Amino acid sequence: MGLNLSLDFQFESPIKKVWLALTDTEILAKWMIFTNDFKPVVGHKFQFRTEPTEWWNGIVDCEVLEVKDPHKLSYTWVSGGESLVVTLTLTHEDSTNNLHLEQTGFESEDQTYSGAKNGWTQMTGELEKVLAEL
Asked: In angstroms, rounded to a whole number, what is the distance separating the alpha carbons of residues 112 and 106?
């Protein structure tokens, strides 16, 4: 079945603002390393694109699987021979919004898994900066 990456992040920003940062194509591009043509519509096929490297073409093919505004977003993540699913779940607790990120389907705890873990951690750090500007 594969290995799952599970990460949790907390944000003080209002849940609608966090949701906007997860679903608006221009805001998404500000905190992710990717340009994109994302739309929060089930069945929408889109790509995340970044500069290619000698090991990777810089393209992630995706399809939106689930949208439950403002609590859940899920999409496929197909790149570099890996076919994964990203699920973002937002919950509000006290004055904090918790973002639970799960990326499922990794073959093993290899370079791709480590890269995803480091990448998501770095990008959500950028997300915090973007939220402060919204």
From this structure: 8
